[in-house]
Amino acid sequence: MDLLALEGPFLMNIKHSLLSLVLAGTTLSMSAATLAETKPVGSGPNPYVNCGIGAALFPTTHWAAVTSNIIWDLGTTAVTSATSSPETCSKRNVAVAQFILDTYDNLAEETAQGQGEHLSAMLEIMDCQQGAQPSVISAVRSQMGQQIGVAGYAEQTKIEKAAIYYDVVNAAAANCAA
Amino acid sequence: MRPLPTAQPEPDPGLPAFCAGKLSPLKVRTPMLIRSLLLLGTLAAALLLSFIAQASPVMAAGTSSPWQEPAWLKLLHYEPDRSSASGYRSAIHDAAFFLSPSGATDPQAEFEATRQAFARAPGANVDEHAQCLFPARFIWISQGAGPSAFKALECTAFNAWNRGNRIDSISLVYATGYLGNPASFYGHTLLKFNSASESGQSKLLDNSLNYGAVVPPNENPLRYMYKGVFGGYVGGFSEVEYYFHSGVYGEVELRDLWEYELNLSREQVDFVVAHGWELLRREYTYYFFRKNCAYRVAELLEIIDGLDIIPAARFATIPQAVIQKMARGTLQGQPLIRTLRYHPSRQTRLYNRFFALDADERAAVRTAAEQPERLQEVLGGAPGLAPRQRILDTLLDYYQYVREPDQGMADINNSHYQQVLQARFSLPPGATELPPSRQPAPHQGRNPSLVRIGGLHNSARGTGLQLSLRPAYYDVLDSGNGHIKNSVLAMGEISAVHFDGRTELRAINLVNLESLNDSVTGLPGDNGRYWKLKLGAEVDNLACSRCLVAQAEGAIGTARRINRHLLLGVSAAGMAQENYQNSGHMAAKVAFFANMNLGSSYSGRLQLNQHRALDGDQRSRSGVTLELRKALDTHLDLRLGYRRDRAEEAMLSLGYYF
Fold this sequence. Notes:
The complex is a heterodimer.
Chain A: H1 8-35, H2 47-50, H3 91-102, H4 104-113, H5 117-125, H6 133-149, H7 158-172
Helix pairs in contact in A: 1-7, 3-7, 6-7
Chain B: H1 30-52, H2 70-75, E1 78-80, E2 88-90, H3 107-119, H4 130-133, H5 135-145, H6 156-161, E3 167-175, E4 188-195, E5 207-213, H7 221-230, E6 233-241, H8 242-252, E7 257-262, H9 266-279, E8 284-286, H10 293-301, H11 319-328, E9 330-331, E10 334-335, E11 337-343, H12 346-356, H13 359-370, H14 375-380, H15 385-402, H16 412-426, E12 450-458, E13 462-470, E14 472-474, E15 488-499, E16 502-516, E17 529-539, E18 548-563, E19 566-577, E20 586-598, E21 602-613, E22 620-633, E23 636-645, E24 647-657
């Protein structure tokens, strides 16, 4: 049998993500206006909407879809859509977006705490210089503190929260690359 | 030629084995388990049969030619096969893994084709050259042929994959067991390629290699079990950055991770990494029992000369047994393990944090968990920033443990979590220290299989002997390192008694599972949930002879820890059974149990139950079971038991773990 035809959670997630992407594309732009008064956070262009991120969400709760099941090509599932710029779907941006989606809860908590190994790893993917990291973290913390306090944030899906976080980090880390 | 490994490729035992560990009591949905019960019976029966009828290894001899050397046979994953002219067939069955058309079954043809391919000039895409596709073979053949035999190419794709040759160590990562999937009961192992520490790269971004089965979406559970046991799935290695596994195992499935960094030289590391590249996405046949994740990962490491970590037991490869053998092993006179790192799951981190709090902080956490609307009041009452941070970080762990993120606002805990996170943002930054864990390491535990012999006296049948065999894995009294306390995971257990010159079966437990959330914190949601699933056959009562009846039992209940030595619980069970002397097909049972733990050497369990048949003669009867265990050493124990069920019986037994 064809390997691709057997990709359990992988294909399952792709189906899920196609729907998610349509929804996310709509809701992200809508949420931008409601979640922040100043900057349209999460309005894109955004790897979650434009590059197919979300196809590799954590394994679903399907009982057979954990541990014993292999996931081929995990992390290389991003596809560039015709509407996105090459920069939006650059390898680094996609890697950052994927990392944020996969570890969002850890990142949110570490951002609140002001430090943590997931934060460091994320900034490393972004090639953010060590010396610049404290100020980037501080800026992200300040922005995310506001975002989380906005009514409706808790109702956002994980991919929507990840997209908001991605934009906040992207803005804060714009000039920290080595 | 490169020094030869001592271990030989193993023959296909005919019947596959199981990828196995400890149970995680939460995040498990009972309907899934009920659906799995019959399948587990099949699986356990296969385990038992394969344990009894083990195939004997057959290995072709002779190492006079390079293609007959164990290193070459290992690199190509040749396994003995009588149907092949050469006596070998590779475990990998996609053609792209071989450079000779007959390479899958002909080590000599493959060796010669590989040498020729290495000498060819590269085409337009260097990465498609044999040297770049098979860098481990290139290392090995070059060592034998001499450095000038081939002109080494610059392989862009492989160099990117091995992080510019900056991987300087390898870890075998052990994930403790998970009840969400029968194939994960016994744990899991994977490889982590560690970037050089001077590179400054986050360990979360290290690459990892994971072996698993390729299972179609929404696979029928019956087919899943059947194909998993009998080799119906393609298996293979996949790669992903380590953060993915730490998230899935540590955050979603709540499984502790133990990272064993191997004491390998840089050349050995390079060889394994190169071979890992060769194996990516190659197709094997996956078997749950023997040739599973633990086997294939260990096999990959065994390409290192002299490394021997695959357990000898041929009925199954239990991941913990690989870890134990590795911990006992040496390589070139040095211990095989360099360092051990422990990555506690979110659940374990919650417990560690909670019990590191002082009494006031613990009370504050309890108040906030029970009455979330009082969060700000609780924080206002805390004396300073550090206590507030500790309270909130504990609550973050707590809500991550109990909430169901997929349910959104339908689960109120998601909203409470958000409030706690918001409160944490409102405080000044600063991380709280995670208290060290005192979890015993899996490699220090006992062996997984048990044989037990005991002398007994039965009030109805006299004095006799009992012999028991349990291929895997643990019960309430002997659950230890890498297992879940107060739980049971036993498969393929069989026991026989001998009275008055007659030997008869007393019980065959295909599957016996008990899961107990210990209610460690007592916070809402950490609530002492208990369930049991049992499938097999057992004597109808202790007074009868040759009265084995098939039974299936499911129970749910609750338990509460009284102190660190005593846990009390109650359960209600439904049973379906074979009708024996009009005893009926259906029965209900209620039970009370007390689990006792007196240090690391002594443990015990008292169980009182009341059983009532729902059809047949509709009789009621009560029973008592008391069992006390003394661990004599890591692999030996002594048990004293008393049971009453129509007759009374006392037994003193000695158990040996192997």
